[in-house]
């Protein structure tokens, strides 16, 4: 693959994940500020996991088999981008939910479509895909940084009247929005994400032509998810599947609460980070993810599957413990964001590698889909349904209140510890040839 084509694919991945990274981190604190009830928040937040489940079962395969990939990518990001822009100007629940669901239903299939375009353009995917896909992680990181200049209290900047570029930058970066002003300005995350989506829609038309895949004669792939469910007859697969659900729940608790926690004033139990620095602080996890992926192979070789996964899950517990018990230590809270990338690589990436290494070729696609349902779908649905309710729950004086950040963070902390214990006690994949693991009964 020539350098020009590799650069195009890299930019495609940057824009693809820039879109998601732009709107996701701050939407959790934005929705209650608009006046949406916990139930309404759950519906809006669950638009993405609903689309993920629908995509895994239906739309991914339909798009893959019916349209040229680059044209589907352009159409999806055109309509999805317009829907995202509409969110910035919508305050009523049903229009907001409809626009978010439209965006997500069109966006989720493009995650696999971008992979399809990349793979179809490569001669040696094992050597080339990693560098191209890294553009996605970089895109997520880059999405955070425009907001250091967007979510700024410009009245304070003008009042300070700084002289010179260096002084001006210092004043701008040091005067982020807070409180209600920050929540109101969060609409810019939708505008930036929508603009990036429209940019990718146009850029998609410059990508290599990738025709729709032909359906194999006699294939039963429309029911592939039913075949995947047969994998659960293996106890070690079932245990890992349930643990993946719990870890996905914990992972999505991070997104539900971290933005609000970082931005809340110290007297309210938060960290007191200015609004324009919340997303850059959260992006530390993605930077750590890139670095962790470089050592993941050596870690797996040294520690093995189960121990590596356990460290990934316990990383969540450690991070939420710091959140719960040391919220006043701003530097520690920022530093602990490193664990987010480590948790992702050591558990989710390890699960994908485990499936690819352990299962025979005829079972791998079904197995990956089985675990993706938990990682992107049901785990997120669970977190997005529970977290808004917990954050606004009212309890009597005789019951521990979960309205403070301390109580909230204990929920994912203990959930992660329980998942790690379950792996220790019950995850024992047999030492056998991978070909012995089949999707069907003998």
Please give a quick description of this structure:
This protein has 442 residues and is an all-alpha fold. Helices cover 75% and strands 0% of the residues.
Q: Can you tell me about this structure?
A:
The chain is an all-alpha fold and 442 residues long. It folds into two domains: 7-151 and 186-212, MFS general substrate transporter like domains (Growth Hormone, Chain: A); 223-426, Up-down Bundle (Growth Hormone, Chain: A). It is 75% helix and 0% strand. It has helices at 3-34, 38-45, 47-66, 69-87, 93-120, 125-144, 147-150, 154-160, 165-173, 179-185, 187-204, 224-229, 235-263, 278-282, 284-303, 305-325, 330-335, 338-358, 361-391, 405-426. Helix 1 (3-34) packs across helix 13 (235-263) and helix 13 runs parallel beside helix 19 (361-391). The protein starts with a helix and ends in a 16-residue tail after the last helix.
**Into which percent range does the helicity of residues fall?**
over 70%
CATH topology group of the largest domain: Growth Hormone, Chain: A
CATH architecture name of the largest domain: Up-down Bundle
Order of helices and strands: HHHHHHHHHHHHHHHHHHHH
Main sheet, how many strands, which sense, barrel? none
**How many whole angstroms does the radius of gyration measure?**
22 Å
Residues in β-strands, percent: under 5%
For the record, the CATH class of the largest domain is Mainly Alpha
Output the number of helix runs: 20
Regions with little confidence, pLDDT below 50 for 5+ residues: 394-403, 433-442
Structural class: mainly alpha
End-to-end C-alpha gap: 43 Å
